[in-house]
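In response to reviewer comment 3 from the previous cycle, which asked for concrete evidence that the modeling workflow produces usable outputs, we include below a single protein chain processed end to end. The sequence was submitted unchanged, and the resulting C-alpha cells are shown without manual editing.
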Amino acid sequence: MCGIVGYTGRRNAKSILLEGLKRLEYRGYDSAGIAVNTPDGISCVKAVGRIAELETILNGMTLDATAGIAHTRWATHGCPSEANAHPHCDCKGRIFLVHNGIVENCDLLRRQLEAEGHTFASETDTEVIAHLVEKYYTGDLGAAVRQALKRVIGTYGLAVICKDDPETVVVARNGSPMVIGVGDGEYFAASDVSAIIKHTKQIIYLDDNEIGLLTPDGFKSHTIDNVPTAKKITEVDWDIQMIDLNGYDTFMSKEIHEQPETIRATFRGRISPREGLASLGGLVDLGPTFFDAKRIIISACGTAWHAGLVGECMIEDIARVPVEVEYASEFRYRNPIIEPGTIIFVISQSGETADTLAAMREAKRRGVPALAISNVVGSTIARESDAGVYIHAGPEIGVASTKAFTSQVTAFYIISLMLARHRHMGQAQGVKMTQALEDIPDQVTRVLKTEDHVKALAEKYFSTTANALFLGRGYNFPIALEGALKLKEISYIHAEGYPAAEMKHGPIALITKEMPVVFIAVQDSIYDKIVVNMEEVKARGGKVIAVATEGDESIKDRADDVIYVPPAPEPLTPLLTVVPLQLLAYHVAKMKGCDVDKPRNLAKSVTVE
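The workflow returned the following C-alpha cells.
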C-alpha cells in the first residue's frame, strides 16, 4: 500500500520525486523519504508524518541529482519512525532501495545476514532486501537485485539505486504494482500511474517476477531468471486535471460530486434505449460461457464487496441467475464448490487489490472463467482476467471509495440487463430499464442538491454520538452496510449496517435516544416492512433519520428527519440512496476535524495481504 516513485533522466530528480510522492500520499502517509544520486554519493532524507514534513527539510537543500527514488510509507513491519522510513540502505551506504510488499521470510534472512556480519538499522522487512543486494553486488546492480530476489519469499514492488552507477534505477515486481513511464530521454517508475501522469502517458506495466533497468538512454526488462522480456507500451487516457482538486476542498467531495458524470461514463455507448439492449464488448465475446452461465460468484473486498451484494440482487432479480458473493480474503483459504457452468466476477477499483487478485487466480486455477470489473486499464487484474468491464470513472484519489462504487453498481445493472435480454426479457421491459438508467445521472444531481440539509443533520445528530446504526432491506441492505462503512472510515464513529428486520435479533438492545439510526426507506416492494422496523426504533426512544422517496409525506410521522431522493425502479435505488450517506459521512468527518482523504490507518489500494 506504500507509494514508490523513481526517476532517471536529465532534469532535477528531487522536484520530480517530491511531486510524485504528493500524488501518492493517499497510498501511505506514516513517513516518507527520498534518495538521490549526487556527484558526491547518494543523499538520503527521511521524515516521519506527511509529505509536508519531508518537503520542509528538502526545501532547505540543494541536491544536484538526475536520478533517484522516493517512498511514502504505510507501516507493516515496525512503527512509523525515521529509522523505519524508506529508503533503506546496505551497510556501506552504497545501495538504497524502496519497497512495497511483505517479505515473509524476513526473520530467517535477517538472522542469516547478521551471522554474516551485516548490521541492521531498522525493524522493517525491507532492509533485508537491501543487505541481500549488498551481499550479491559485484559491480552489476541488476544482477545483484536478481540474485537477492531469488531468496525473497513474499511480495514486492521495488526500486533500487547504487552510487557506483549513478544514472541507473532498477525496478522489480512480484505481487505489488510497478509501472514505468517512458519520456524523451528520461524514464519514470511508480507504484501508481497517478504519480507520473503529469510527465508522460506512455506506460509499461511490469509483470510478476520481472525486473527492469532504467537509464536515460533506454529501458530493458528480463525475468528473475534473466530471460529478456518484450514489453508493450500502453497509452493511459487519464488527464492531469482528473487528479487535481479543481476547486474542491477535498478529493472525496470532488469525487462525490463527479458521480452524475461517472455513472454516465460507465453506461455511455453500452446501452441502446430504443432496442432495450445492453452490450459490454469483452463479455459479448465470451458467448455462451457468459450468457448461459448457470451460477455466478462475485468476489471483492470492502466497498467493492458491497457493490457485489447489490450486483447479486440485480442479477438474481433481473436475470434469474444464482449468485454468491464472497469476501476475496476468504475465498482462496477455503475449498469452495465450483461446478461446471460457473463464472466468477472480481471487483477492484485499482485492479491491484492483493486479496482480490489472489481470489481471481485461484478461480482460474480451478478452471473457472474469471471476469473483472475494474477502473484501471493495464492493471494486473485487468490484464490477467479472461474478460472485463472498465467502469471509466477516472482516477479515484480519496481513500474512501465513492464514485467507483456507483460505477461498479451501474456495471452490474448493465450485466443484469444483458443476461436477462438473452434469457427471458422482452424488448418493452428492456426499453424501460435502459431509459431508467439514462435518467439516473440527473437524479443523482438532484440528490446532491440536498447537501446543505445533510450537513445540518450531521451537526444535529453526530456531534456527540459515538455509535450509529444503518438499516435497509432488499436492494438497500448493502447500502446500509456501505453507509456504515463510510462513517467508520472517515469519521471514526463506530457504525454498523444491518438488514432492518435483523435489528430485533440483537442490535435493538443498543437503541438509545443518543444513538442515531439511519433507515433507507424508499417506496419499494418491502416499504411497509421497513416502516414497521422504524416504528420499533421509535417505540424505544431512538432517533430516526430516513432516506425516503420524494413525495412520501407519511414517512415524516415515523422519522425525526428525512432526506429525500427521486423515485426510481427498485434495482436503481442504490445509486440514489448511497449518495446522501456519502455526504453524511463526509460532513460528520469534516465537523470532527478528520482528514477525509487520508483517514488514519487506511490506504487507498490494499496491495499487501
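The chain has 19 helices and 26 strands. We consider this sufficient to address the reviewer's concern, and the full set will be provided in the supplementary archive.
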